Records
---
Amino acid sequence: MAAEGKTKVKTRIRVGIGGWTFAPWRDNFYPADLAQARELEYASQHVTAIEINGTYYGTQKPSTFARWRDETPDNFMFSVKASRYATNRKVLADAGDSIAKFIDSGVSELGPKLGPILWELAPTKVFDPDDVNAFLGLLPDKVDGLQLRHVLEVRNESFMCPEYVALARKHKVATVFTDSPKFPSFADATGDFVYARLMGTKATLKAGYAPKALDTWADTTRAWAAGESPEALPYAGEPAKAGKPRDVFVFFISGAKERAPAAAMALLKRLAKD
């Protein structure tokens, strides 16, 4: 997909939703006669990525990851939300066993469809440089020969500081950009890809976001893909200098969740014009 920055570049821009099983989607996204067992197959033909959230709550089997891989198109990609047992703890440095258990649970069965691993911290977790540094150092580079990419979602305002940004960049771990007033929302590029979780969908809007807002997100996504740091966004540290083209993952999460698929498809439609 081409993206416009200072120069025309080709990169991977992925846009999708969180999960694929949500009862209201059977009224406004999935065809009425679609068997529930085929929802992933259908969803993966209308968005280009899905964030797997069930892995946050419980361990999945390797055969389950393999089935998800086989039910989706060749060019599809999943991000995987890591186990809460690894992240919802007072001392992150003690998470080594939980991290290993999750990584070894079968995520490698997704093969080339394995995208970023999302590590979501608890809102009560305050930024502790030593603890966060130890935790990020525990995240493995590979599993079964597959290169892993990690992204951290921080939910405490204390992380909005230059010290955190520098630490995440040191470990080359991306940081979630969250479009929500409920959580820290800063767009510092700390890894070699961008990961956005947009939470502003509204039930009163057919596509979840107003047309002008979607136009703006399309422009922002193109800028991210071109290696830029859009000026209109908030930053906790010094914005990164323009760099190489990079992958971008945009997921419509939470908010009026019933509108998430429509929002994702509307953004994809805009990006398809590039």
---
Amino acid sequence: MTATASTPPTPDVLIVGAGLIGLAIGWRAAGRGLQVTIVDPAPGTGASGVAAGMLAPVTEATYNEEALLRLNLASAAAYPDFVAELTEATGLDTGYCTSGTLLAAVDGDDLAHAAELHAFQRTLGLDVEAVDARELRRREPMLAPGLRGGLWVAGDHHIDPRRLLDALLAACRAAGVRFVEVAAAAVASSAGRAIGVELTDGTRLSGGRVVLAAGAHTGQLRGLPAGAFDCLRPVKGQILRLRGPALLGHTVRGLVRGTSIYLVPRADGEVVVGATVEEQGFDTSVTAGAGYELLRDALELVPALSELELTEIRAGLRPGTPDNGPLLGPAHLTDLVVATGHYRNGVLLTPITAQAITAMLTDAEPPAVTTPFRADRFARRSAAGGERIAVAP
């Protein structure tokens, strides 16, 4: 059901943003008996639809990000039940695939980097197997014959974010979530409390609590304390889609002369190739150079990709934070809840984020693994008065 901006209901929860995060929160909150309205001019069409859909806590593990690794692992563990419940509620397939992930190294330096990564992963107790070139090609026969070796991660999977968006939209509508398809311009507040949002057409919507889940654009909303989201920045990622006969059975991540790339296959023969990491502000233009580099490195891994049709090149904006972790929970104003900053892990962190934020909205205890990712952790207290002041990265 779509509400008109002129006669909106007054919900318990007003969510800004209808990407994977906002939709999953809306679905879960409605399932707990809350009246939910989601504000977004085009639900399901933002950065979530650009993502490749890797669910890869192990191959994304990075030095000094152990708390984020634990969060990622917890969300990955929640995925089977999450998608099963979603499919049961809607009858829609999300493209969830548990075939595992291969990491392939092109030259000796890449193999040395893979070995270093493997040693680090093993210190964390992660399930990773080093494999030689022969084993790589046994698992993926279409890989180039000159690869040096790599890693096998049985527990890193993938999903189709576009199908997941469709399923969450259907689940939200079936659960009674209302959509207002107008952009939010500002958070409305009174006496330090969030009371709703103002739309770009001047309409004001009221809500018991306001959830900001607008990804990289969250900080562009007016009505927030000065500097509230100085810690949040857009990180551009360009991505390609190819289509043809099915070539791959697993996600393939590559180290190609020091550059990282990934190839994510779909059951219908699509292969998603990504992604660049660019600090370009809110620019979402696609460039010839990025497309060339992605195709060049992809062909180093799987030469047969040259026969596939290039169907799409798009750019999305990841919401980045100084420590690459999300912003989850109350912040800045009473009754304002934040769910953004997921950076490269937005698809992966959808189930745990929805669980955590819904717990907060119902005054329950969120999962302990989310505690390090308080939404106000980049703020400091002023010397006078004790108010919180945002700290820029």
---
Amino acid sequence: MGVPPDKGHIRVGIGGWNYEPWRKTFYPAEVTQSRELEYASRHVTSIEINGTFYGLQKPTVFAKWHDSTPESFMFSIKAPRFIVQRKDLASAGTAIERFVSSGITELKAKLGPILWQLADTKGFDPKEIESFLSLLPATAGKLHLRHALEVRHGSFLNREFLAIARQRGVAVVYEDDATHPGFADLTSAFVYARLRRSTASCATGYSLASLKQWARRAQAWASGKEPTDLPRVAAVRSAAGQPRPVFIFFINGAKERAPAAARKLISLLE
């Protein structure tokens, strides 16, 4: 048990691996659909599993995903919508237990953070959020679990929410998006960012200048520092701390450009 040994490691990836436009922009013709994960996992360093949002998967499916990917690869898992889209999050205890015991431990050491994405209509209720975060388990079998909470309502832009997240060690997702609020206050020992501004007119989704900027931000996070050019709730940044694992995913926007964006950022970090 204990914290995964990836302090300071920056992982960059995409959401899922089955996306028809990627047959033209990412996958070579000789790569069959059954081998898409095998190929994708060798060109990005992490993948956010989105299929779990729509329904539970079987242990054999998680085991297959594990076996199809390189030893150093890591997944994140998007928690099911029947948990995160309910009216009262504090009532999700049984559903969370069902999800965590559904077979996610078959990913073994490749299991990264679990993403809990709240609906854009879900406002901040301190008691409800504190109760919900208290339900998130610290372990599953012998695996340490890390939790990332994505909030999409402006009412979460307050220090009380950040204090609750810090108390529970839950990372608040930084969302680079024109619609939803994004704030880079750190609340956990790892960082989770979802970048959603890819444009179809740019071959790499984000411009080279923007990707270089994201590389600098990722390196700052990973080294224990904080970027100085991202929005925050609290003006004061924390002092430099221990190196942190960083997870960055290119999600939506012009999704057909996501693999190219991820690969370019990886090359800049290298």
